[in-house]
Amino acid sequence: MEAAACAKSATGYTYARREPEKTALFQVIQQHLLTFEQQWTDKSDGHTLPSFVTDELHDFLGCGILARGLAQLFCPTCHERYVVGWSCKGRGFCPSCGGRRMNAGALTLVDHVLPEVPFRQFVLTMPFPLRLPLAFDGELLGQVLRIFTDTIAANYRKRQANRGIADGQCGAVTVIQRANSDLRLNPHFHVLQIDGLC
Length: 198
Known about the structure:
Layout: H1 8-11, H2 24-39, H3 51-60, E1 70-74, E2 81-85, H4 95-113, E3 119-125, H5 128-136, H6 138-162, E4 172-179, E5 185-194
Antiparallel strand pairs: 1-2, 3-5, 4-5
Helix pairs in contact: 2-3
């Protein structure tokens, strides 16, 4: 397998393998994951953490670890060989995979989806009693999102009608986040809405 030309010749930089096993997050998860899972298991009724949560945490422990799989790359410019560990491709916990997914998603939106018009961001957070039901019911969460975006669009249409503009199209992109920055459960929406009608 050949990698793109190594930056070494042009800039003096070389590839350095990411070493997740040396990070504090990896070490904490590695040391305490089994205890964490045991504490979340209710022996009386058998309830445990959802499997998608435990799967993501266990997959994180293999992300970038060479013993779990790797690719060997060759740079034709500097004639060096490099090894790159497989990633877990996690969606919500792994900082490396999450950052890569975020950057790729932003690039796609900017280059291929969003028109060059002004946008406005709206954020909708949920009341505490609704957070748990919405976190585990995707259909209900989708209905709440639809009501929210339809309400925003209706407001824009009403404002445009008051100015004598008969019709127009609305557009929005939404990112659903499921936790606060302190990792407490908090499903909420970040909506990028075209600021007006097209």
